[in-house]
Amino acid sequence: MKALVISGGGSKGAFAGGVAQYLIEQQNKEYDMFLGTSTGSLLVPHLATNNIGKLYDIFTNVKQSTIFSINPFVQHKKGDREYVSINYFNSILQFIKRKRTFGESKNLRKHIKKHFTEEEFNLIRETKEDVVVTVSNLSKNRVEYKSINDFSYEEFCDWIWISCNYIPFMSLVKRDGFEYADGGLGCVIPIREAILRGATEVDAIVLESENLEYNKVLGKNPFSLMINLFGHLLDQVEKADIAIGKLAAKHRDVKLNLYYTPTQLTENSLIFSKRLMTKWWEDGFEYAKQKHMGAEVSK
């Protein structure tokens, strides 16, 4: 049984879309199971329906207004560089309202339901083994994996949304008496979970370069420094997930293929730019193509 696994990574998910497009369309890979965390959870339902053209249009046109109902960021452009800074008004307003997050992401919930239909939900359940999204149960201090086979359409859309909620910048969601947030807070890339669910071959797309060959520029204020700190912590979680995944694959004799970004794509994956995401999608497709061409030559 073949599984496609996609890590978290915000706007860098466009790169994963390009890699997946090459694997499915050019390598004729047919996956039985799809697992994702955060941005990966947005991608996997559409990949499971094999509607890559629709996914490309949706993903490369995402804006901050698509995600945030209360936006904690202001996006700037200076020359070719795009960056975000704090939206002081919205953040202070959240404090006044005694909210626990700097922003709210209710627009993303509407966006998911608008573009992932109930017909597509039913099609996946009829034709695929499983689609799984990763969430963090903060009340229980554990990671949970939510299968499309265990929930209604409305409930599964909620779990996709919850998997993407990168707190404290997005919504903290209460379900069944527990509080949930972004799956990447506990598991950035669920390789081991795919193996435990019976995968015998796993293609895993990791939205980070394999080796850190640059010095990160740390934020100049507490807010941007917090973003850098969260990024650092998630990098450590991701490395642990990959190490655990490799061990599980070796133990169970599972073929594991890892696809990293060949270079650093962005310092801040909460920047959503059509120009950048279109380029990253194309870069992902070309990277997967070159990787497979190199593999063929070395045989």
UniProtKB/TrEMBL annotation:
**Single GO biological process annotation from the record:** lipid catabolic process
Where can the motif GXGXXG be found? 8-13
Identify which residues the record assigns to the active site.
38 (nucleophile), 182 (proton acceptor)
**Molecular function as annotated in GO:** hydrolase activity
Q: Which UniProt keywords apply?
A: Hydrolase, Lipid degradation, Lipid metabolism
Asked whether the keyword Calcium is assigned, the reply is no
Q: Taking every annotated instance into account, which residue ranges of this chain make up the domain PNPLA?
A: 4-195
Motif GXSXG, per the record, lies over 36-40
Motif range (DGA/G): 182-184
Name recorded for this polypeptide: Patatin-like phospholipase family protein
Taxonomic source organism: Aestuariibaculum suncheonense
